[in-house]
Amino acid sequence: MMRERLGRAALHAFPETVRASRGEEMLGTLLDVSANSRSRFVLEIIALVGAGLTARAIESAKPGARRMLADGVCLAAIVLLTMFVSTDLGDRIRGNPWSPSSPWPHILAGAALILALIGYDRLAGATALLFTASLAVSSGHNGGNVTVGAFGICASALLLTPRRHQPDVRRLTWLIVTAGVALIASTSDDTSAAPVILAVLVLAPVALALLPVDPRPAIACALLAAWFGIVLTQKNSETFVPGLIFMAAAAVIVAIGTARVHRLQTHTPV
Amino acid sequence: MEFRTPSYFALAALIDGPLHGYAIVRRTGELSNGAVRLSTGTLYALLERAIDDGLVTAGRSYVEHGRKRRDYTLTASGRSALQAEAERLARAGQTVTRRLRETARRVPQ
């Protein structure tokens, strides 16, 4: 019973479609093959997870490098919107919201985030473009033209190259993360720093670990690193070099992700 | 088409007729004299690729001794690809064996 549970857990390494069509069959074979040996069972589980991750990598590479890059920009839009909304919420929790005269940027950013999370990318993109426009005319924001430009690019990607997946309201659970980041941000005087630090410490390592399986989160992080790098290079002479390092790291990650997709797309021998 | 060793023996296991996953693992072990021990992950990955390449077909799933099974069958294309690979390996083996025999007397013991 324990082995069956472990086997089922290992099957989660496979894409959902493979699990649905061959999961039970694979589990049966796994249990038969390793019936008389504990060490064989452990090796089988490791091999099964490896095969599952490879299957995921092949599946994520199927649409091609261009699609992968577009998906990465769409994911970057979600992360940017999350950072904006959590910073804004953090400010409100602290009782010092910026730009109190105009509620529109906040409403539009929240709406765009919710729509993008569910999967209505075109609607989310249009809303995010309106948000970008409202951000551009707003005088109270510190981010400057680079941030407005980053939002504009990501919003355009959502509108023009929406991701190909079915809408799913369960993805709104990401709002719990947004609320959590907002709570952490509210404990600091610089509420915009906490989302950036959390993105660097939590999101980036996870995305890099996923790079061999699914490069899209890493591409999203690379785009955010490029944005952050440009902001740093424009800040002052001390932050110029770190800014360049961020930009170079972003270029390397995008190159690795693209190369990985090309390699997985080339035919491997049976 | 070139095969990796596990795929070569796994497809060879299907020469005598359709087999399910566990039976392929056992037959592969027998045919390779225990040299190839297929893991479940490797087996289904190679079956997936073989199906995509038209070398193998998957039958309908059924239940046997409480386990969900599916039989896999070697296609005509799979048989000829396997035959071509067997001949290539045989030729390669013959070439090396002949050269070893021809040079055996010249190599100091």
Question: Your description of this structure?
Answer:
The complex is a heterodimer of chains A (270) and B (109). The mean pLDDT of chain A is 88. Helix content of chain A is 77%, strand content 0%. Chain A is built from 11 helices and no strands. The longest helix of chain A has 30 residues, at 65-94. Chain A has 270 residues and is mostly helical. Chain B is α+β, with helices and mostly antiparallel strands. Helices cover 55% and strands 17% of the residues of chain B. Chain B contains 4 helices and 3 strands, in the order H-E-H-H-E-E-H. Chain B has helices at 5-12, 21-31, 40-52, 76-103, and strands at 19-20, 56-64, 67-74. In chain B, strands 1-3-2 form a 3-stranded antiparallel beta sheet. Chain B is elongated and about 60 Å long. The chains are: A mainly alpha (270), B alpha+beta (109). Chains A and B meet through helix 2 and helix 3 of A and helix 2, helix 3 and strand 3 of B.
Q: What is the global morphology of chain B? A: elongated
Question: What is the structural class of chain B?
Answer: alpha+beta
Q: How large is the share of residues in beta strands of chain B? A: 15-25%
Helix content of chain B: 55-70%
Summarize the biggest pleated sheet of chain B.
3 strands, antiparallel
Integer average pLDDT of chain A: 88
Distance between the termini of chain A: 34 Å
Major β-sheet annotation of chain A: none
How many helices of chain A? The count is 11
Beta-strand content bin of chain A: under 5%
Largest interface: A-B, 25 and 28 residues
Number of strands of chain A: 0
Mean pLDDT of chain B: 93
- Fraction in helix of chain A: over 70%
Q: Which ranges of chain B are low-confidence, i.e. pLDDT below 50, for 5 or more consecutive residues?
A: none
Pairing-aware structural class of the strands and helices of chain A? mainly alpha
Itemize the secondary structure elements and their pairings:
The complex is a heterodimer of chains A (270) and B (109).
Chain A: H1 2-11, H2 16-33, H3 38-61, H4 65-94, H5 104-118, H6 121-137, H7 144-160, H8 174-186, H9 193-210, H10 216-235, H11 240-265
Helix pairs in contact in A: 1-2, 1-3, 3-11, 4-5, 4-7, 4-8, 4-9, 4-10, 5-6, 6-7, 8-9, 9-10, 10-11
Chain B: H1 5-12, E1 19-20, H2 21-31, H3 40-52, E2 56-64, E3 67-74, H4 76-103
Antiparallel strand pairs in B: 1-3, 2-3
